[in-house]
Amino acid sequence: MLGAPLLASAQTAQDPSNVVLVFDVSNSILLADDGTNVEFAQALEGIAGRVEASADELVLGNAEVSFVAFGRTAISFPNGCDGLALNQNPAAVERLATCLRRIAQNYRAGANANVRDRLDTQDTDHVAALVAAADLLPDQATRSAVIFFTDGEHDPPGTARDNENVVAAIAGAYQGRSPLAILPVGLGASAGNFETQLRGLFDAYFRDMEPCEGRAAFAWPDVVFPSADEAGVAVAEALQEVTCSFVFVPPATPTPVPTPGPTVSPTLPPLSAPLGVQMLAGNGSLTIQWQAPPDGGDRVVDYLVRCRPEGGGDDDWLESEEGVSTETQTEIDGLEPGVAYVCEVAATDGLTQGASAASAAAVVVLGIPETPGQPRAEPIDRGARLTVDPIPGGVPVDSYVYECTSATGEVTTKAGPERTVVVDGLVNGVSYTCVAYAENRVGRSQASVASAAFSPCADLFDCVPAARYGAIGGVALAALAAAGYGALLYRRRNRVWVTAQVDGGENRSLGWGPDLGVVLEREGEGGEMFARVHDFEEAPIKVRYRGDGFFVVSSKAGIHDVHQGDPAPVRDDAGFMHLLTLRRYRAKPNERQAAAARQAAAARPEDPAPEQVVERLEGRDEEAPPSWDAGNEVPAGGTHVTADVGNAASNPSGALAGTFAGALADDAAARAEADAATEAAAAAGQHAAPEAVEDARAADPGPGDEARSTEGA
Known about the structure:
Blueprint: E1 6-9, E2 17-24, H1 27-30, H2 36-53, H3 55-58, E3 63-70, E4 74-75, E5 84-85, H4 90-109, H5 126-135, E6 143-150, H6 166-169, E7 180-187, H7 193-204, E8 224-225, H8 228-243, E9 246-249, E10 275-282, E11 285-291, E12 302-309, E13 318-319, E14 329-332, E15 340-348, E16 357-358, E17 363-364, E18 376-380, E19 383-387, E20 399-406, E21 411-416, E22 421-424, E23 432-439, H9 460-463, H10 465-491, E24 496-502, E25 508-512, E26 515-522, E27 529-534, E28 541-547, E29 550-555, E30 558-563, E31 567-571, E32 577-585, H11 591-603, H12 610-618, E33 639-644, H13 654-683, H14 690-699, H15 703-712
Parallel strand pairs: 2-3, 2-6, 6-7, 7-8, 24-33
Antiparallel strand pairs: 1-9, 3-4, 3-5, 10-11, 11-14, 12-13, 12-15, 15-16, 15-17, 18-19, 19-22, 20-21, 20-23, 24-32, 26-27, 26-28, 28-29, 29-30, 31-32, 32-33
Helix pairs in contact: 2-4, 2-8, 11-13, 12-13
């Protein structure tokens, strides 16, 4: 190859060095119609070949190399070509050669260069390029250098930066860096503003660079070179001067030959896209396969392959690193497991790049699955049904493997594609624990935390012995519940007439029970409290006659089970405590006659005897209601009820106890009212039905009646 630079191994590298190779890929060189781009590509390919040939010596050096490409903007390019540390790293030396070839491929491709998909190549911005290079240099280094290749003057977009001073514009990026050298490699005619700009860069940013061992001085006499071949040689010489790892051997001067006349190359059709692109997922990698393009396949000298995450942008492309090759298969590694990628392939003949062909669908990169969570075991007859929660992340799982170990150390394994797997072949009554693995064709995960111990069993009663007794108890409870429910229905067959007295006030009728809703109200301004019937579901006080002379009273004061005639504490809507006394009757009383009886009872001068009060509280004085309506029929099996209430608004505990004593006198008066009502009814010629009173007592005897029966005995 004409003019290719030759590199030879130096003795050793004296100091660490950091180099950034900056390449101008603006349209002025990519779209050159005189073959300059191809000539420079050949020079770079020659450097790459020498790097490969001297790899054993280069690993003894101590250089770190990075790459930048620029036009209107600047980026680190190609991918994976920054921070290549060559010391004792053969892979980095090989990667350096690959990166040089990738840059060469883009120069060869011209208008079809894939770097044009990454940045705007319309203009030439030296400031953007040199700032990007500074970002790749360490803050502290023994020797830092930028080898700056360009074929045009600084020409940023727009007019705002016309006549911009590049030396001043990049001063902040290189402030404090030393030793340092910016080595311009200009492609073009000497003399003029172009050379002046580049010479100014070198003079301003050459700082304290000592020569390599064996050289008298660090020299960079030329900054502009007339041909692409000579510019390529200059790049190699710059590497030599900066790293001290390369020794450049100038090529022999060729014998001059007559310059041939211009030849007309036939116009070749563009390369078509490769066919049948498909991808195979690997462990953090993808293997891409394709077929040669049907048009121009014999002219292909290399394939350009790249991949990116599905939905990614232009900056997410990852390129293959196999170098120049006509193989129709390559592998791109370093991908993220569990992420779906798309890839595309394009062919190049060294001059142009054909259309790209993309894979038909995205493919998820494989990796070893994450460790499953703790298995949950459901014992069954001679086995267990095991399951785990879904594994986070997108790494595909081909199967779930469960390994169960008995208390004696015997291991049973079963696998399946679903998270739930039935492991059979276990022994009933033997204790087991199981671990889970997630597996795909890449490998198997770590073992999960062991499940809780379990023992296979034949049925529910075998698995849970207590269930046998529970079932028996359940049947018994069901029978008792049925009997209780029947008894409840039977008790609720009886209707009773209920009256209520609030805080020792008037005894008023509520209505037919057994269930009544009650609300407390005050009669007029400053009047007495009384009970009124309200909707049962919405009432603040709920009364239920449960039979045997007892009422269940529910309110904000709690639930109380009281005998008829005994006060029950309740709270009104304002939160004040009251005493509510309930009575039940077998027939509806005549309210007017009951009122007359109360007046008569109130006129009596004497108080009830103490023994009468005791009988009242013990329920031994249960009598018929004060009076009955003429012709009123007593419901079959029915009873009649009244109620009293004592006030305990201010002191629910002390007042409640004290009020019981006061209620004794009120209750005796109420009993006298009942007696008076009976007498009044008899005087009026109505049948008070004394036997009805006795029937009520017989149906619901009070504690006093039982006491009298005992005394009589």
